[in-house]
Specification:
heterodimer, A: about 325 residues, alpha/beta, Rossmann fold, 3 domains, 6-stranded parallel β-sheet, two-stranded antiparallel ribbon, 12 helices, B: about 140 residues, 4-stranded parallel β-sheet, 4 helices
């Protein structure tokens, strides 16, 4: 087989790019979780860019023709100017850009940085943490002159943004990380050439709430006391919310199969808001407030005060995408 | 008249059966209410989704007033208790977001309390003037 044959063959396959911005790497591992099916990805796609697995330079991507990548799965939130630049480059080069995973879709755990400030983060990372020794109070600079020339680092933004707050996004795949069999569904859908959902759709997930996938028994909810999971030994059959544990199931999109609740841990909300809900945290808060079993203001307040860190609990995965986007400094 | 160039915008969500009728009574009785308060009629204070409140604040309101029937008087029996629980929860969350919880106020106003509606509207305006405009950072 000549090189030309190889080139000719790859030209017929759709081009796939995967990128990670501000993320933990879990989304990449979720792709590896396809197990042997992961081999079918390069069989069906021409992988043109995947920094975690291939050595492709940014300049190579910047040099590609517009719309030359058929599908780009973009995971990670937008934390730095480097993340933002790559989002803009990949938007221009990709026919279909997918926000892959909770970080790109809603901000996720990196987005919790919006509960504090850039200044406080730098202070914690470079000065205050117990393991740091930095007597000269050195902090990273975006531009630095050396005898050999100027070197630069990306700018660290004040707030974490989601992919769709920076560029237009065609589809969203929720999850922290997305479940492997859900990723496979999406790949199969695209490979089959079948009709794609309308732009802006959430794909690779259900259209109900996690409660619909949860096998626990639900009763009429009347909550007198909120507890944290380590404070009680939860009944294995009964709804966790009925037992006073804050479970995000009622305000979270189905699609994961109810994994956490099945293992005895409350849903934390990583699959994002269910259809037609804009702010997952407010939705959950509203649901919780309605099941508090009290009518007297002081009694209600005492019950609500048992919820530790409401912003971090209700907006754990969606702070940058919430109505206010960040905690006011 | 704007003081120091600040003209507060206050959005009021009033229940159809009590608070809105109370506001109506204030009007027909020629009792002056604060023009900074923009009333929106909802069927029940229990209908007020936290999203309404947060979206109003996000979209330029400096304060939000929720008003419904007195406890025990709800036209739908317990919508106002639902509103009370949500309001306390919203205040807690607003505090968490670094926004003064006094920008959200809940009052029980019956259909015969036109004077109370007027009094609450002026109090709310004065408090929001003290707090100043709500400026949200992105």
């Amino acid at each position: 087989m000549t090189m030309q044959d190889v080139a000719g063959q790859t030209a017929t396959k759709p081009k796939l790019a995967l990128y990670w911005a501000a993320s933990c790497g879990g989304c990449e591992i979720a792709i590896l979780e396809l197990h042997e099916k992961v081999l079918e990805v390069p069989a069906n796609f021409d992988l043109v860019f995947w920094p975690v697995a291939m050595d492709v330079k940014y300049a190579d991507v910047e040099g590609m023709e517009p719309d030359s990548i058929d599908l780009c799965l973009f995971n990670g939130a937008i934390r730095t100017s480097e993340n933002e630049h790559l989002a803009q480059v990949l938007r221009e080069k990709s026919k279909t850009l997918v926000a892959f995973g909770s970080c790109a879709m809603e901000g996720c755990i990196p987005g919790l940085a919006n509960a504090t400030t850039k200044e406080a983060i730098f202070n914690a990372a470079y000065h205050a943490s117990p393991s740091t020794v930095n007597p000269d109070r050195v902090e990273p600079q975006t531009i630095w002159d050396l005898p050999e020339g100027q070197v630069s680092l990306p700018t660290f933004f004040e707030s974490v943004k989601t992919l769709d707050q920076v560029v237009d996004v065609d589809y969203f795949i929720p999850g922290c990380p997305p479940e492997a069999h859900r990723i496979w569904e999406v790949i199969e859908l695209i490979v089959s050439g079948g009709p794609l959902p309308p732009p802006g759709a959430v794909i690779g997930a259900g259209d109900q709430t996690v409660c619909e996938e949860c096998l626990r028994t639900r009763e009429e909810k009347r909550i007198k006391e909120f507890v944290r999971p380590h404070q009680i030994i939860a009944d294995p059959e009964l709804c966790l919310l009925d037992q006073g544990i804050v479970c995000m199931g009622p305000a979270t999109r189905s699609g994961c199969g109810g994994l956490c609740v099945g293992a005895g841990s409350p849903c934390r909300g990583c699959y994002g808001p269910p259809p037609n809900v804009r702010d997952q945290g407010l939705n959950m808060m509203s649901a919780l407030a309605s099941v508090v079993d009290a009518t007297e203001a002081t009694e209600i307040q005492a019950i609500l005060d048992q919820i530790a860190d409401p912003v971090g609990t209700f907006h754990r995965f969606s702070l940058p995408h919430s109505t206010f986007g960040r905690v006011q400094p | 008249m704007p003081e120091n160039g600040f003209n507060p915008k206050i959005v009021g969500f009033l229940c159809n059966w009590c608070a809105y009728s109370g506001a109506d009574l204030a009007g027909v009785s020629r009792i002056q209410s604060s023009p900074t308060l923009r009333p929106i009629r909802v069927m029940c204070s229990g209908r007020i989704d936290p999203g309404f409140v947060f979206t109003a604040l996000k979209s330029g309101a400096d304060g939000v007033l929720l008003a419904g029937c007195h406890p025990g008087d709800c036209h739908y029996s317990e919508g106002n208790y639902l509103c009370l629980r949500r309001t306390l929860m919203m205040k807690k969350l607003l505090g968490g977001f670094g926004i003064d919880e006094e920008r959200l106020r809940l009052e029980w106003i019956s259909a015969s309390e036109g004077d109370k509606y007027s009094k609450v509207s002026w109090e709310m305006e004065n408090r929001i003037r003290e707090l100043g405009p709500l400026e949200l950072k992105q």
